[in-house]
Specification:
Blueprint lengths: L1 H25 L6 H21 L6 H23 L21 H6 L2 H18 L6 H22 L28 H20 L6 H23 L11 H22 L16
């Protein structure tokens, strides 16, 4: 039981905590942006080193390290996007909507640089991880990338729940590229393929001939795939998904209070006391 339970719990906690951490960081004051990016870039650098260092080590411990490192590297990409540092050439609202949707190329332009950066990262990971004894980091990153593209396409084509509350204030223009509809033709295909992929990974993890490393690695991947599948269902099922990361969204409330306080103070007239006559004596 521990063979599968430990990696499942680890993956669940890492997914929940790191998602909340990214949401909290991107909701911090914009004046701290340089520090935020410097800190997350340093963490991403350490993650790349861990992926490199564990690539030849096929042990359960190295599977844990590679899985976490891939999540941290993905977190850098998400942070750079949600802070507005790496987005795309278009940073304005949709010019028009045809048939309820924004133009496809205009939508792509809003996140083009972000997607190119992820693609380059995938290629780099494939160059030094593919074919190595420990490919956990590569496949973890690939699952995150493919499933995020699927989610973005579904949001563009139309779903009932757009999870707009996760967007920070400086990215609210992206809402104009979302489409709210009861369903789209891609969604059933997305969840079907995701379910099949999850089932395959579970079968690999529980195979009779699987080593301890393989069982751990495939359990990580199956859990992550299942979580991505659940996130897809969040797009159509009216569940309060934001409640899972209310603590991560708290930084935005703190910033809003600070801004409102500063505005209120700026509107309060400053009382200046009239000048007092200067006494000729010191005492």
């Amino acid at each position: 039981m521990l063979l599968y339970g430990a990696p499942i719990l680890f993956a669940l906690f890492a997914w929940w905590f790191l998602t909340g951490a990214v949401l909290y960081v991107v909701g911090m004051p914009r004046s701290r942006l340089s520090w935020i990016m410097a800190g997350t870039t340093a963490i991403a650098g350490v993650a790349v080193y861990v992926l490199w260092a564990t690539r030849g080590d096929a042990t359960p411990a190295s599977a844990y390290q590679a899985f976490l490192a891939a999540l941290l590297l993905w977190g850098w990409h998400e942070t750079s996007f949600l802070t507005g540092v790496v987005t795309g050439p278009r940073t304005s609202a949709s010019p028009h909507r045809a048939g309820g949707r924004a133009p496809l190329w205009a939508s792509i332009e809003t996140l083009l640089y972000h997607e190119v950066a992820i693609l380059l990262t995938v290629l780099a990971l494939a160059m030094f991880l593919y074919g190595s004894p420990n490919e956990v980091g590569l496949w973890t990153f690939l699952i995150l990338w493919v499933m995020r593209i699927s989610a973005k396409l579904n949001v563009y084509l139309g779903v009932p729940n757009l999870t707009e509350e996760f967007l920070p204030e400086h990215l609210t223009y992206l809402k104009t590229y979302f489409c709210r509809r009861p369903m789209n033709l891609l969604f059933p295909l997305s969840v079907t393929l995701s379910t099949l992929a999850t089932a395959y990974l579970v079968m690999q993890a529980t195979a009779s001939g699987a080593t301890h490393f393989e069982a751990t690695a495939y359990t990580f991947l199956a859990t992550l795939m299942a979580l991505a599948l659940i996130e897809h269902w969040f797009l159509v099922v009216p569940l309060p998904s934001a409640a899972l990361w209310s603590w991560g969204l708290a930084s935005r409330e703190i910033e809003e209070v600070a801004v409102k306080t500063a505005v209120a103070r700026a509107k309060v007239p400053v009382k200046v006391d009239p000048p007092q006559p200067v006494s000729a004596t010191i005492f």
